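ugh ok fine here u go
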Amino acid sequence: MEYIRDYAMYAAIFGMFSMSWFGWAQERPRDPWRKYLGIASGFALLVCLLGVYFSMMNWDAPTALSDQTNFSNYLISVYVEFILAGVGAFVLIRKKRKDYVAPWIAFIVGIHFIGLAGVFEDPSLYVLAALLVTVSVISLFVAPKLQVANSAITGIGSGTVLFAFAVLGLLRFLLA
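structure:
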């Protein structure tokens, strides 16, 4: 079943988190990248706001989260994600490895989409999971070579992937 409200929420949520990742990428990027990161954040915000608008205008439309089992599984996935991300970030910071926090968060966010693919009956979320996990691993090798923070590469990669999925959500909503 297609849940058009969920597609609008993809645009809203993925747009918001895309904007956040582009913001995190500004921790220590190369200077010429900053204006492009700001522009990317602005576009992500626009897609987010469109998603919010379409979600509000279709609030009574069916959603995968109307099913109590799906909603419970969604909450479990989100709680586990927050706990793992938070505990991992805490440990990394305590061990003076804060440059690994952004890749760790992207890795956990990616993994959590594996569970959400079933909740939303949307196999495209497996692709999103794979891309975010890939970004988190690649950033560990690319950032040192470019002499930028891991968060710069992780933020650019994760922001781009999430922006693409926000736009995809918007398109799926508009074409449904």
